[in-house]
Amino acid sequence: MPHARRAFLGDLGTGLGGIALAALLGEQGLLADDRAPLRPAAVLLTHAHFDHAGEAGTFAGDVPVYVHPDDLPAFGDYPAWGGGSATALDAVADLRTMVDGDVLRLAGLTLEVLHTPGHTPGSSCFRIEDEVVLLSGDLVFAGTIGRSDFANSDPAAMRRSLIRFLTLPDATRVLPGHGRETTVGAERASNPFLREAG
Q1: pTM (2 decimals)?
Q2: Domain encompassing residue 82
Q3: Which residues, 6 or more positions from 162, have their beta carbon under 8 angstroms from its beta carbon?
Q4: Consecutive sets of 10 residues in the chain, 198 residues long: mean pLDDT of each?
Q5: Strand (E) or helix (H) holding 162
Q6: What is the CATH number of the domain that holds 186?
């Protein structure tokens, strides 16, 4: 097999299970195999809701999975953490934590962790340095924002996180946890929820 390239996978809220996601990525030539050697270096979770983290452990195998410590309890007792259902998250072989300001160097990229609580206690974004890109999870979507009415959500923390989002440069590309790509500038100009927060 040719030398494997490295990549990281940020959760993008596909709703696909780990096995289905692996199959889809394999079909697109994005996983290590004899045709297209690309090996994940890590899985980054913006938060621990089931649609983002449910099968992260199955997908990751022995690859590290990163989550903020405030969402770590979801992996032990999802309902008690406030996950909203009795469903359990898959076990993760190498579960690691990251906090605000941490810098992760993965697959040749440098990512800064921004703790942006509100949607969940541990909700976080990842800013890819030198790329002007933000993986926003369920903080901000094109034209709207993530919910802050779950059992473990915090509307006041969400407002502070949205104000922090607005400190980023307008040119920053935003890759949300659901839906299409946007930019900080586009959301600043047209997102009614951000006007309310600011």
Answers
A1: 0.85
A2: 5-197
A3: 118, 139, 140, 145, 193, 194, 197, 198
A4: 47 48 47 54 90 88 93 96 91 97 89 97 93 92 96 97 97 92 96 86
A5: helix 155-165
A6: 3.60.15.10
